[in-house]
Specification:
Blueprint lengths: L5 E4 L5 E4 L4 E4 L14 H9 L6 E2 L2 E5 L4 H14 L5 H16 L9 H5 L6 H18 L1
Antiparallel strand pairs: 1-2, 2-3, 4-5
């Protein structure tokens, strides 16, 4: 995978590496720079989809909870491109929270997996990631 990165200096003379997904500060004189990359959704989308219940949604016959693999990849790739700071771990945790919420309702209104990622420009998945991050920040200051 190609990493798009640029080097800049902040006001204190530290190098800042801006990459696709991470912003890392590096002390002057460091010989080796390692830039973490977001894993390609093609590599883990099947693992992610398996978190969803198998089979058809009884409230929406003919449609599976796991949705279309192709559209999951397309939507996840778009989500990661739009929000490059999110990590696979955040995606997994948010998905677990979404599924836990809908499990309490018997998955009655659970959208297909590709729509959980994004539908009509809105992302339930990203909203859950933001909620989790705000919760972490708030608990840090309490």
């Amino acid at each position: 995978m190609t990493v798009n990165a640029e080097l800049i200096k902040d006001l204190n003379g530290n190098l800042i590496i801006r990459g696709n997904l991470k912003l890392l500060k590096v002390k002057p004189g460091l010989q080796k720079i390692i830039l973490e990359q977001q894993e390609d959704p093609n590599e883990w989308i099947d693992e992610w989809r398996k978190k969803f219940p198998s089979g058809d949604n009884p409230n929406n016959p003919g449609f599976t909870f796991r949705g279309s693999r192709k559209f999951c990849i397309v939507n996840m790739t778009a989500l990661v491109a739009e929000h490059p700071a999110i990590t696979k771990q955040q995606i997994i945790e948010a998905t677990d929270n979404i599924l836990e919420h809908f499990q309490s309702q018997g998955y009655k209104y659970l959208p297909q997996a590709h729509y959980v990622i994004m539908k009509l420009g809105k992302s339930m998945l990203y909203e859950y990631i933001e909620k989790a991050e705000k919760k972490k920040i708030n608990s840090f200051y309490l």
